Amino acid sequence: MAAPKKGRSASAQSRPGRSLALILIAIAALTGGMFLSGHPTPRLGIDLAGGTSITLEAKNEPGQPNAINKTNMNTAVDIMNRRVNGLGVSEAEVQTQGDKNIIVNIPKGTNSKQAREQVGTTAKLYFRPVLTTEVSGADASASPSPGASGSSSSKATDKASSSSSPSSSTTPSATATSQGRAVTDALKADSTPSASSSATGSASPSSSASPSASSSTDPATAKLEAQYTALDCTDKAARAKAGEGAKPTDPTVACGKNSGQWQKYILGPAEVSGTDIKKAAAVYDTSSAAGWKVTMDFTSGGSKKFASITGELAQNQTPQNQFAIVLDGEVVSDPYVKQALTGGNAEISGNFGQSEAQDLANMLKYGALPLTFKEASVTTVTAALGGEQLHAGLIAGAIGLALVVIYLVVYYRGLSVIAIPSLLVSAILTYVIMALLGPTIGFALNLPAVCGAIVAIGITADSFIVFFERIRDEIREGRSLRPAVERAWPRARRTILVSDFVSFLAAAVLFIVTVGKVQGFAFTLGLTTLLDVVVVFLFTKPLMTILARRKFFAGGHSWSGLDPKRLGAKPPLRRTRRASAPVDTKEA
To answer: Could you give the CA distance from residue 511 to residue 517 in angstroms, rounded to a whole number?
Structure first.
């Protein structure tokens, strides 16, 4: 049983070139990927490269005069920070200023327009039943069916059940005639349109009262009808004010775009809200031409609400069998249903690009802002001070690296031939990975991150010292170099792994419990600690094994760093067998 184990060990020791080839191929592949990505340098943080500073001012909500308070402001800061800095390494800063202002600093190289939309968008999502809808404004003249529900172009479906849009549509006169009764029924309804509701989008002019007749008994209905009639969704200003001040429990008007045409809607009270969404993600739909879409998983309570509302809507006729997905007052999709959707998940799709789908999923995932904000100012931040600090930091790092190299050459002599290339490989891997993480996860190199990289020099050098000292201990016990290397490695390996684990654990705890720039330091420290393990296992140890076969090291040259006399062992390193005494065959 022992012989095969010895054979496998000898085989592994005799092929250290495989490990060296593996890490060199990895370096080449990562370097190639870095240049192909178009980002050959790490993305710098706002303190090193400058950027954009956005001031957002909180606005009072109708009916909520005390909404702007410390609790809501802190909640808004937390949500904004997670939106633009989800992994804590993109170097975006979000902080309050005064009682109702929030300052957002975005580093150069980030899409400032996209980031401004991320932090300023309230992201209040509601699922509302559609009462009536028609093509709005100038688009109505180009539409063959003004009263169509528009769901033929809507791509929002539930994963449990989805179908194409019905072909039926209402006429302009029917839509106008049914508006008053649809609104009246919505106001009278408990929360959703029921199967017995008499409001349909295809009622004939003679089967219902006129809008003016229905509104004469209800001021709220009259106001909603007037808003709907006057609403021109092709006007940007009108779209922004549509449904302004409406509560989730009230019917409202809204705008949405379908197949390039703007439509206006009368929507019932919200049945499901964004708070009922457990998680959201942007995915690419390869099964259809929809492209990018946003998938949503509901909470247990949200699943029940969604199943209930879709079950009631399925009993109605078009367009009352549709529900509108409303994001910040705008209809992003208006699918119809044929049956209750009980899968607990849904999806929003349409003319989304990748960034748009990811932004929407990000906003839904991290939740809606408790307040509405407007941009008070947008300014450009320079990096003059940060540049000076970076210059000083790089000088300090160069001095520290030079001192480490001098120490290795003086104390370990020839072994510095192994340590210095190992430091170089670690530096290359750190730089390349930092450059790749910029476009991948938004990592930005700031001053604390530079400090973390400088500290990593000591961590990496410490691993070499542990290994070299273990080898020297074996030589002091009288072993030759090659057996000493193999016997020293298991002991050194355990020490290195324990040391790196402690460093990585400290970095992980620091990353979790801190915010802002300190996270950059913790992230860099953790990254370089992991790379230290990779370099020692795949480069330092195999290179030491190869050089141990060379006469300069195996013979214990005085400049090899492994001279037995200097280490207190008796030379030579390699013991020779005594020649056996000749045997006299006659005497035997």
So the answer is: 10
Contact indicator for 108, 88 with CB cutoff of 8 Å = no
pLDDT in tens, 327-380: 888 888 888 788 888 888 887 776 677 777 877 787 777 777 888 888 888 887
Task: Decide if 54 contacts 106 (C-beta within 8 A).
Answer: yes
Cα–Cα distance measured from residue 537 to residue 62, given in angstroms and rounded to the nearest whole number: 63
Planar angle of CA 35, 37, 40, nearest 5 degrees: 45
Q: How far apart are CA 334 and CA 323, in angstroms?
A: 6
Residues 6+ apart with CB under 8 A from 320: 129, 130, 131, 182, 193, 197, 199, 200, 201, 313
Cβ distance 295 to 280 under 8 Å? Answer: yes
Distance CA 534, CA 407 (A): 23
Q: Flag whether the pTM goes above 0.70.
A: no
Q: Which residues are registered as beta bridge partners of 380?
A: 52
Q: How many helices (H) and strands (E) does the chain have?
A: 19, 13
Helix, strand, coil in percent for the chain, rounding step 5: 50, 15, 30
Q: For residue range 142-188, what is the model confidence (pLDDT) as tens digits?
A: 554 433 333 333 333 443 333 333 333 333 334 444 444 545 554 45
CA distance 578 to 575: 9
The set of residues, in sequence order, having a beta carbon less than 8 Å from that of 227 and lying 6+ positions away, is 242, 253
**Residue 13: other Cβ atoms inside 10 A:** 15
User: What CA–CA distances, in Å, run from 447 to 52, 78, 542?
Assistant: 18, 23, 35
Peptide bond into 572 cis (omega under 30): yes
pLDDT tens across 442-465, in order?
788 888 888 888 888 888 888 989
Residue 27 identity (one-letter amino acid)? I
Q: At what angle do helices 447-476 and 416-441 cross, to 10 degrees?
A: 150
Q: What one-letter code names the amino acid at 542? A: P
Q: Of 464, 472, 457, nearest to 541 (Cα)?
A: 464
Q: Does 438 score more than 60 pLDDT?
A: yes
Pairing mode of beta strands 101-107, 51-59? antiparallel
